[in-house]
Amino acid sequence: MKFSSPFGDARCLLPTRRVAVGASQLRQFAIEPRIHDPLSNPHEAQQEYGINLVQWQGLSSLDALILAVPLRSGYSTFKLNLLEFIVKVLVTGAAGFIGFHLCQRLLTRGDEVVGLDNLNDYYDVSLKKDRLAQLKQKSSFSFHKLDLANQPGIAQLFAQNCFDVVVNLAAQAGVRYSLKNPHAYVDSNLVGFTNILEGCRYGKVKHLVFASSSSLYGANTKIPFSVHHNVDYPVSLYAATKKANELMAHTYSHLYGLPTTGLRFFTVYGPWGRPDMALFLFTKAILARQAIEVFNYGKMQRDFTYIDDIVEGVVRVIDKVPQSNPQWSGNAPDPGTSNAPYKIYNIGNNNPVELMDFIEAIEDCLGIKAEKKMLSIQPGDVPVTYADVEDLVRDVGFKPKTTIQVGIERFVKWYRDYYFI
Ligand SMILES: NC(=O)c1ccc[n+]([C@@H]2O[C@H](COP(=O)([O-])OP(=O)(O)OC[C@H]3O[C@@H](n4cnc5c(N)ncnc54)[C@H](O)[C@@H]3O)[C@@H](O)[C@H]2O)c1
User: Fold this and answer.
1) For the segment 319-370, what is each residue's pLDDT rounded down to a tens digit?
2) Least buried of 18, 50, 342, 358, by fewest C-beta within 10 Å?
3) 404-419 vs 355-366: helix crossing angle, rounded to 10
4) At a CB cut-off of 8 Å and minimum separation 6, what does 214 contact?
């Protein structure tokens, strides 16, 4: 009987941490896996399974195992997919909102996660420390307090570790703050990102995934915002630095064959969220019976995206290493892809919500009516965000789905528990 697997017809090499996961996946197909230690007796493995010794030379860890289905049982051996080789993921911004949730998810699926963060005081540092304290409970998590802009420090981190994947989330975030403190954006988002690119280049990282932003669509008015539209008109320095990150990553993909994927996140919210963002600010003010500031007199739409949906998207993208697109043409360049191993995705809810409806959902959840201070639009802000997620759905089979009612309820529950309110 020929076994046909959805993962391809090949051999399966798994680092130890992944063996349990791989074994359970094999068992779903009624295949009893055999575990073989190639380093103790590679010749036996070669004879029994026809495995090419070259296949495990890339494995850094001495405890690497081969999990293979014996050919003689009538099944072909197979691998689960290339990314099953991943043992080590560097997540920068690990103490941040998205980084914390992503680390939790990666640890749950069995990855070894190295977190990096400078724990800056852009917002309440104790919130960052509390997130970190949860991650530190897992033995496969380690943490480095380090600034991205510290060139020797980052170079040393890459020299001492062999990262398979890097997810760069550390950045100076926030549109409004970029008018106040532009240098913070240059230091973290430009200088820091260069250090990450150099680390990935010399560290031979297999995939760099990095946070971009919906704010890149800036002055664009064609909605939904698509990764295939040009985004050459940012309206804040924050957006300009994120655009620069995409250009810099493309250059490294082109010059050094470094596979890079940029993710444009759309207004992320959820438990452990950022204190400078609308949901947090509104909840805090409403509970304290203080007025909330409603910009552009409430005439705003946001494609609010729940944190679990963002994390699901990121994890799936991590496993989808971009390839060069043979159809890409310099005569009519498509900004979302390239002839280099480079790809851009939107991760947004694909369902923009009126700001006033968002506020009403918070009021309903809290059971308190908000006092509203109606104000004009803030410089650097855009009135509407709306993500086209066609590429994400096509390539990784996922579309964010959490409604604001569900997401806000979960946030409010967390907020009340965390702050004892
Ligand atoms: N939350 C959103 O709605 C949203 C939307 C679009 C894009 N993004 C991007 O996603 C990423 C994560 O955002 P978040 O909401 O989790 O923000 P966050 O501020 O909670 O997390 C960023 C983390 O990076 C750390 N950091 C900042 N500069 C650093 C530096 N120079 N060196 C080391 N660490 C540094 C901070 O201490 C923080 O813990 C950011 O790149 C952000 O620009 C977020």
Assistant:
1) 889 999 999 999 999 999 999 999 999 999 999 999 999 999 999 999 999 9
2) 50
3) 50
4) 225, 264, 265, 266, 267, 303, 346, 348, 385, 387
DSSP code of 8?
A: -
Count how many residues are written for the chain: 421
Contact 204, 165 (CB under 8 A): no
Is the Cβ atom of 213 under 6 angstroms away from ligand 1? yes
pLDDT tens profile 45-58: 455 544 443 333 33
- Angle (CA) 396-400-404 rounded to 5° is 175
Tell me if 90 sits within 8 A of 161, measured CB to CB: yes
In whole angstroms, give the CA distance from residue 273 to residue 310: 13
What is d(CA 104, CA 16) in angstroms, rounded to the nearest whole number?
A: 20
Ligand 1 contact via 189 beta carbon (within 6 Å): no
Q: For residues 6 and 8, give the distance between their C-alpha atoms in angstroms, rounded to a whole number.
A: 6
Nearest in space to 410 (alpha carbons), one of 288, 270, 201: 270
Ligand 1 binding pocket mutation candidate from 101, 124, 166, 169 (most atoms within 8 A of CB): 169
Nearest atom in ligand 1 to the alpha carbon of residue 123 is 19
- CA–CA dist 330, 342 (Å, integer): 15
Measure 45 CA to ligand 1 centroid, in angstroms: 46
Instruction: Name every residue whose Cβ is closer than 8 Å to that of residue 283 and which is 6 or more positions away in sequence.
Output: 362, 366, 411, 412, 415
**H helix intervals, 109-228:** 125-135, 151-160, 177-180, 182-185, 192-203
Give, rounded to a whole angstrom, the gap between the first and last alpha carbons of the chain.
Answer: 62
pTM of the entire structure? 0.85
Tell me how far apart the alpha carbons of residues 158 and 169 are, in angstroms, rounded to a whole number: 17
